[in-house]
Amino acid sequence: MENQQQTQYAGIAGKTVMITGAAAGIGFCLSKAFAQQGAKVFMIDLNQEALTEATQALQAYSVQGYAANVTDDDAVRAAFEACKNSFGLVDVLFNNAGISLNKPSLDITMSEWRRCVDINLSSLFLCSQEAAKHMQQQGSGVIINTASIWGLSTSAERTAYCTTKAGVVSMTKCLAAEWGSLGIRVLAIGPGYTRTALVEKLQQQNTLDVADLERRTPLGRLAEPEEIAELALFLASDAAKFMTGQTYLIDGGWEANGFQ
Ligand SMILES: NC(=O)c1ccc[n+]([C@@H]2O[C@H](COP(=O)([O-])OP(=O)(O)OC[C@H]3O[C@@H](n4cnc5c(N)ncnc54)[C@H](O)[C@@H]3O)[C@@H](O)[C@H]2O)c1
C-alpha cells in the first residue's frame, strides 16, 4: 500500500528522529513517513545490505543509515554520537527493532530466550536511557516503543514474545512516569498482525495461518505498515502533546474480538 496521506503533523519537520530496525517492514515505513514530514531520520539496523537498499530508496529525503546491533551497549552509544554529529540531539526515538519467537516453551533454549529478551526488551531500555540523556538537555523529547497486541494478550507457544512485549508496555508506563517532569513523553504502539517480512517468515514456517487471522479480525484483514506509521506520526506530533504512558493498539479490532 503506497502511503497516500499527505497530512502535515505539527512539530515533526526539522526534528531528529532515530528509528531502530529501520531497514525493513514497519521500521522502513516509519522512516519513510517521518522523512516525508521533513524530519531528519537516523536509521539503525543490523542488516547492512537491507539498510543500504532502504536508505537508497529514501535518498530524496534527509536520512542516514547506521549499521548496529541494538543489543550492543557500545554500538548503541556510538550510534547516538554519530547521530548527534550528523543531525543533532535526538528529538524522537522509535524503538522498533524486534524479533518473533513462536515455539513450545519446553523447546525454547536459554540462548533463544536471552536473545529475545535482549532484542525485544533490554535494547529498548538501553536506547531509551541514551535518548533521555539527549532529551533532558533539550527539555523535551518523545520515545515511542513498538509493542504488540501480544503485549496485552497471551497465548500458548508465545511465552518469550508475549513476556517481552508485556515488558515493553510496563517499561513505557514506568519511564513516562519518571521522565514526564523532564519533558519527555513515552508511548507505545501495539500493532496487530502487519504485512511485513516477519509475518511472511512465520507463514512460511507454518506457525501462522493468515486466512484464519483475517477471519478473526473484525475488519477482515491484516494491517499495512503504513497504517502503523500514520499512528506513529500522530503520537510524535504536537497534536499528542498531553499523551504519555499508554500503549495504543492498532489491530482492526483483533484484541476486542477475544479468542476464537
Ligand atoms: N509484523 C507484525 O505483524 C508485527 C505485529 C506487532 C508488532 N510487531 C513488532 O514490530 C516491530 C517490527 O516488526 P516487523 O514486522 O517490521 O519486522 P521485520 O522483521 O520486517 O523488520 C525488523 C527489522 O529489525 C532489524 N533488527 C532485528 N534485530 C535487530 C537488532 N538486534 N539490532 C538492529 N536491528 C535489528 C531487522 O534486521 C529488520 O530490518 C518488531 O518489534 C515486532 O515485534 C510486528
Automatic annotation (TrEMBL):
Which intervals of the chain form a coiled coil? none
Q: Mind telling me which InterPro entries this protein's record contains?
A: NAD(P)-bd_dom_sf, Sc_DH/Rdtase_CS, SDR_fam
Single Gene Ontology MF annotation: oxidoreductase activity, acting on the CH-OH group of donors, NAD or NADP as acceptor
**Any single Pfam family the record assigns to this protein:** adh_short_C2
Q: Which UniProt keywords apply?
A: Oxidoreductase
* Domain of life of the native organism: Bacteria
Asked if the keyword Mitochondrion belongs to this entry, the reply reads no
Gene3D superfamilies according to UniProt: NAD(P)-binding Rossmann-like Domain
Signal peptide from the UniProt entry: none
The record's family statement is: Belongs to the short-chain dehydrogenases/reductases (SDR) family.
Q: What is this protein called?
A: 3-oxoacyl-[acyl-carrier protein] reductase
The organism named in the record is: Acinetobacter rudis CIP 110305
